[in-house]
Amino acid sequence: MKLLHLDSSALGAHSVTRELSAAVVARWRAQLPHLQVEYRDLDAQPIPHLTGGSLAKANPAEVAEAEAVLQQFLGADVVVLGVPFYNFGIPSTLKAWIDRIAVAGKTFRYTETGPQGLAGGKRIIIASGRGGVYGDASPFDFQEAYLRQVFGFLGITDIDVVRAEGVALSPQHRSDALAAAHAAIPEPLAEAA
Ligand SMILES: Cc1cc2nc3c(=O)[nH]c(=O)nc-3n(C[C@H](O)[C@H](O)[C@H](O)COP(=O)(O)O)c2cc1C
């Protein structure tokens, strides 16, 4: 089984989502010693923004990287994402990754009856960090709701969210939210337990 672990926080060692995503991966490693884990820090090793040149395949190195990013996603059984809430949405570094994995004919296609996701069968775990408190269904949430939409469009419905929110309100809020999020980390696949 392959697990792809991505972080996107710009806050380095102070990051809430880096701590949480690492804890999720540690839980999986503990239960599945033979788990193959691949890691990419999208902040330290960003993927180029999708441009007209990207679509024209103007740069062979960029084409090769885009293909590698897509294949890495397609090959993963589980994807663990560290996702901060930045300006009501996700970090642009993570959006740049999404722009490389949402590929017509590879991860979705359009049919006469509408779009069809082609990347089903994966499990996604989102380690979410939010400075304020938005809950499960805020009209201002373009982070978790957006990711559910994107991955759902690609055919992925097995999505868990581990959320620490209100972390900017006070140090106490931050530590309480992190403790609650750690306690809510989902178990790896039931059959592996
Ligand atoms: C650039 C930036 C934008 C942010 N925008 C928001 C925001 O719109 N709403 C909010 O509640 N918190 C916002 N925050 C606070 C983050 O959501 C909070 O710090 C969270 O812990 C981010 O996860 P991280 O610690 O892993 O980076 C922002 C933080 C940064 C650095």
TrEMBL record:
Record's keyword annotation contains Iron: no
EC number: 1.6.5.-, 1.7.1.17
Top-level taxon in the UniProt lineage: Bacteria
Primary enzyme class: oxidoreductase
Reaction catalyzed: 2 a quinone + NADH + H(+) = 2 a 1,4-benzosemiquinone + NAD(+); N,N-dimethyl-1,4-phenylenediamine + anthranilate + 2 NAD(+) = 2-(4-dimethylaminophenyl)diazenylbenzoate + 2 NADH + 2 H(+)
Ligand binding (FMN): S9
Domain Flavodoxin-like fold stretches: 1-185
One family name in Pfam for this protein: Flavodoxin_2
Cofactor: FMN
Cofactor binding remark: Binds 1 FMN per subunit.
Coiled coil: none
Key words of the record: Flavoprotein, FMN, NAD, Oxidoreductase
Annotated family: Belongs to the azoreductase type 1 family.
PANTHER family with a match to the protein in the record: FMN-DEPENDENT NADH-AZOREDUCTASE 1, FMN-DEPENDENT NADH:QUINONE OXIDOREDUCTASE
Subunit note: Homodimer.
Full protein name: FMN dependent NADH:quinone oxidoreductase
The species this protein was found in: Vulcaniibacterium tengchongense
